[in-house]
Amino acid sequence: MSDSINTNARRVRVSRIALYAILLLAVLFYLLPLIVMLLTSVKSMADIRAGNLISWPQEFLLDAWVKAWSSACTGVSCEGVGSFFWNSFQITLPAVLISTFLGALNGYVLTKWKFRGSDIFFGLMLFGCFIPFQVVILPMAQTLGWLGLANTTTGLVFVHIVYGMAFTTLFFRNFYVSVPTELVSAAKIDGAGFFTIFWRIILPLSTPIFVVCIIWQFTQVWNDFLFGVVFSGGDTQPITVALNNLVNSSTGVKEYNVDMAAAMIAALPTLVVYVLAGKYFVRGLTAGAVKG
Amino acid sequence: MKTNVTSDVAAALSTEGVLADSSAQGSRSVNPLDLIQRWLPKLVLAPTVIMTLLFIYGYVIWTGVLSLTKSRFLPNYNFVGFAQYEKLLDNDRWSVASLNILIFGGLFILICLLIGVVMAILLDQKIRAEGSIRTVFLYPMALSFIVTGTAWKWILNPGLGLEKLVHDFGYESFQFDWLVDPDMAIYTLVIAAVWQSSGFVMALFLAGLRGVDSSIVKAAQLDGASMPMIYRRIILPHLRPVFFSAFIILSHIAIKSFDLVMALTGGGPGYATDLPATFMYVTTFSRGQIGLGSASAMMMLGVVLAILIPYLYSELRGKNNV
User: Fold this and answer.
1) Which of A4, A241, A283, B172 could form a disulfide with A237 if both were Cys (CB 3.0 to 4.6 A apart)?
2) How much is the pTM?
């Protein structure tokens, strides 16, 4: 009797160990690229050739980071990715703030001030979450050209607002659906108007969804490549485009350490957001994952 | 807080009846202020309505029109019927791209679902440090596909990458040059894409698992069912909706895959790893064949709709049956 309990306990222990071993392997698999990037970015090229992907650096050097930031060649110019890093901020901040704010207003109207056709419109708008953007970029390129916004930051911000809005509206609509309508009706009876209710009642309740929405939009716009490569040019490019130019330019000797440092620079803002606000990030993902 | 976009579409489409009326009631006195209040919600929504109709629906139609023209470097409106589509289907590069999306999309979706469900089940066994492990599984989702592509391009580097690592472990004969092998390069895309997205699928399944009624599981255990049996008969069937959502999300990511290809393989060697999205970009913007590029974009839209519409339809029917 005690024998069978013993073997049983041992079997449980073995399977627990196996379980943790598998999970550890998986953790390593997911962490490996990040570790490799970091290690490679602080090595010299000689060190890279002598060692391997995960060999410890003989000497920690920040040369590659400095070069990636200020003097690596991204296509025609050789001024590093630093200025493109700031471009990305200039594109991301207004695009995120405006699309989020518009999304809040839209969500408010679509839940608390419904009118004939507003639900159908919401359905139509959600279609915007699903289309492959390839199907709109050509007309958009031509429109931006007519407006004199081709290759400008303003143009790119505009594009991000237009195609981000379906998502921000979706976030806020889903959130406001669960805000009791009685709250709004009561305020209406008291004579409060559309904007008074929004400012005084709705907005104070909205902090969590603002966080989710802003993080989601920030990640989307910062990581965008398609719009960046099509609608921006030369010195208005976002960092993703600059990084791609840097890595895939065929001139000169490949400097893998510089490539990795530049990739880390491009990844840092969204990684920082993820580490600081992972919970909200995951919420946004599950709510808005379809955008991909 | 877990919401699902697709089911929202269905909900929005099915609830055509307008529930909450606006302040439209009691408009006996036509006070100009009241009038403004009445129109305000519509006014606020108007820019979005216009933008949606113009920049989504209008542009889709516009691209559709361009796909019927002879446009090359500049759009023109000499209509040629479906000639561009015929040209597209005859185009060798397009057939490579179409085959690639089947291979890439199929493997990517299958492996992500498999890893996702297995990892979720493993993580659901009262694991210590579950939160940290989840964080590690999910962080790739915060990265740009360009960063992912850059990292994997280096890891898979023939010569200095994985190959050298394995050599240093003592397996001198190990060879790994998929990145430059036209027949194998497409699988490097699968590896990188799975790395980026599988953690997210795991999170979806984990949320699904946490939603399974534990009393049913306990009852089955009391009846003497083994855990594998319980998973196969009770829990996995319960996760069916998650499988569907994950499938839709993953196929959507696959069809839109553009950044990853540009960063990892650039569509090469040659055009061995072209996908429809890169085909469209190169054809339209580098080779100046706007008509052909538009036709390929419309084909992409067609595929997305072909996946989405049956899904929405079943969602709608499901909702109406309840």
Assistant:
1) A241
2) 0.86
